[in-house]
Amino acid sequence: MSVRKNLIPLGVFVALAYGLPLALAGNRYLAFVCGMTLINVLLACGMNLLYGYTGLMPLMFAGIAGISAYVSVRLSEAGLSFWLAMPLGALAASSLGVLLGLPSLRLKGFYFTLCSLVIQSVITLGFIYFSGFTNGDTGIAQIPLPSLPGGISLAGPPYELMLATFASLGIALLIALVGSSFGQRLVAIREDDGLAEALGIDVTRQKLGAFFIGSLFAGLGGAVYAPYLGFVSPRSFDVLVSLNIWLMVAFGGRGTIWGPVVGAALLTPVPFLLQDYYTIKDVVYGLLIIGVIVALPSGLAGALKLSPRPGASKVAMRARPEKAS
Amino acid sequence: MTAPLLEAAHITVRFGGVVALRDVSLAQVPRETLGMIGPNGSGKTTFVNVMTGHLRPAHGTISFDGKAMAGRKPFQIAAAGLNRTFQAVRIFQELTVAQNLATALVDAMHPLDPDAMAGAIDWLELGHRMTARAGGLTLYEQRRLELLMRLVQQPRLVMLDEPVGGLSTSEVHAMLGLLAELKSRTTIFIIEHTMKVIREIADRVVVLLAGEKIADGAPTEILRDPRVIEKYLGSFDA
Question: How far is B74 from chain A (nearest CA, A)?
Fold first, then answer.
């Protein structure tokens, strides 16, 4: 996986990420869809590291983003600068995510996914239960947009430019990780963790590392999401949101850098387009998930053969049969 | 007498009520090729699984290179220089041969230097297959890739679990040539089903039967041991 061959697409992405919100600045609604897409690109990069490269399907992904969102909002309210609250929230979320995920990291395939679903449910219940901190089902409204040091407000296009920066840095980080020996170990674990271990790779430690970094992506996404919408509630971070991010990765092509980015760009606008038909929105999503699993197990990138993707033809939901000895 | 490289003492493994290994002890000195034979289900693979940390024994101690290995994880044992292959060929099927090789090197404690590596690739005749998907190789090529992935880690000991399984007669013959050469590069522990392979390359043979060691000696002695003949060879094509 060469870093160099990703430079041109990265340049194109950066140009689009900064250019589109500026071009659409006259239409707040479309600019907002752009901003949401950029947040989802960031989230999809983290999900891709875990699902695409490590072979783990973390359905607690939205829950981790939520923890970060709540923590950073409350820290900002307490008077901390957003620029400190955001990384602290993300760190808190990924640390908590790793702690919650510890027992499940010994599992793989389907069993990990099932365990992550339980963890997501517990986090969602926690958001409702600890209403002193989260304001329960009512949620937290009127979350102010952060401002730059010196009091310059980020309202409007500047916030989208900030999101563009985060999304671009997120992709660049993923490219660097995938091209490193760390990325090599993760792919080995995805392909055959038993063989990886027999070749001297500390599987549990590498999975922990991937989980921590993937959760950081989730945490940053959650922290920038809250002030952008101005409102968070347990429903903002429930399992459907996790599945939504997963779908972007699976639909675009897991285990490729650009597949999930395209997936996020194509799928983020769907709920906005379907706003008038909200009753069938979930049906459309359900059909998309089934369609991807049946027709595009390796996503758009696989269908278009954009790049040779080792291992993407296997559906990771499947538990790998243990070898009898 | 050289100090043993691998020393297993009183290894007992139970799966529920079934005793898979009962009080098995053996020692292997450096450069000695030790064979292990026994009928299906006699505990050969279980023994390798215990030595490489894939299974914890109920009793017994393992020392490798003078250090206690019991309780260590497979990756730690691999890092200590004890490598293994698996009974069914096990490579990263979806990755290319070059990527498989790179993965074997990523956490290697003592990787081969580039010249020696090029030599090993030539020796195993995999140079022209480097960009091929490993899953698309022939079984014999996959077996060679397995060997290459161990060899580049410069292990002190390689445990091979039926390395000629599934190969054609001519491939078995070629593989035996490779294994004979491999003996000069590292120490080999080899599980086999067929006496022919053991007779050709092993210096010493351990016979397992229903989880117990029933014989231990030179291949020629083993072939004459009445217990082995009665329990194993008598009912088996030798």
Answer: 6
Average pLDDT over residues A61-76: 96
- Give the DSSP H or E segment for B208: strand B204-209
Q: Considering only CA atoms, which of A249, A296, A291 is closest in space to residue A57?
A: A249
Residue A96's pLDDT is what?
A: 87
Q: Supply the pTM of this predicted model.
A: 0.90
To which CATH superfamily is domain B6-235 assigned? P-loop containing nucleotide triphosphate hydrolases (3.40.50.300)
How far is residue A170's CA from residue A130's CA, in Å, rounded to a whole number? Answer: 31
List chain B domain ranges.
6-235
- Among candidates A164, A65, A198, which has minimal Cα distance to B72? A198
- The ipTM of this complex is 0.92
Q: What residues of chain B lie within 8 A of the CB of A203, using their CB?
A: 75
Contact: B94, A310; criterion CB under 8 Å: yes
* B1/A contact by beta carbon, under 8 A: no
What residues does each domain of chain A span? 4-238
Which tens digit of pLDDT belongs to each residue from B6-31?
A: 999 999 999 988 999 999 999 999 99
Place of tokens 């072939």: B223
What is the least distance, in Å, from the CA of B1 to any CA of chain A?
A: 31
Q: Is A2 exposed, middle or buried (0-12, 13-18, 19+ CB in 10 A)?
A: exposed
Task: Report how far residue A126's alpha carbon sits from residue A131's, in angstroms, rounded to the nearest whole number.
Answer: 8
Within 163-222 of B, beta carbons closer than 8 Å to A belong to: none
pLDDT confidence tier of residue A92, bands split at 50, 70 and 90: very high
| Nearest partner of B28 among B2, B4, B8, B11, judged by Cα | B4
From the list B212, B211, B209, B182, the residue with the least C-alpha distance to B197 is: B182
Per-residue pLDDT at A206: 94
